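Notebook entry, structure prediction.
Reason for the run: the old model in the group folder had no record of what sequence produced it. Starting over properly, with the input documented here first.
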Amino acid sequence: MSSDNNIIKPDVSWKEITPGGAIYSAGNSEYFRTGDWSSLKPKLDPGKCRSCYLCIPVCPDSVITADGDKLQFNFNLCKGCGICVQACSFSALKMEKEGN
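New structure, fully documented this time:
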């Protein structure tokens, strides 16, 4: 497979794809629109958020970023695993059905 860090890229030919299309490296959701896989998404209650940012490093898909003291979510990458909700000590995040 000819790709950087074993990450499959859109321009990879069928001859270079890993057996079974397996993904061997973490943090690769930025190359795939994995947000379409989920029916749940995290919702932030800004009044409860204390800007501790513990949710950012636990997200396996780099969905959450901070812009100053404001959290931002890239829902195109979010698979709805809810790990960020579990990591939040202030109950500022909860999982909601898509479209709410």
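Summary: Confidence is low (pLDDT under 50) at residues 1-5.
The old model has been moved to the deprecated folder.
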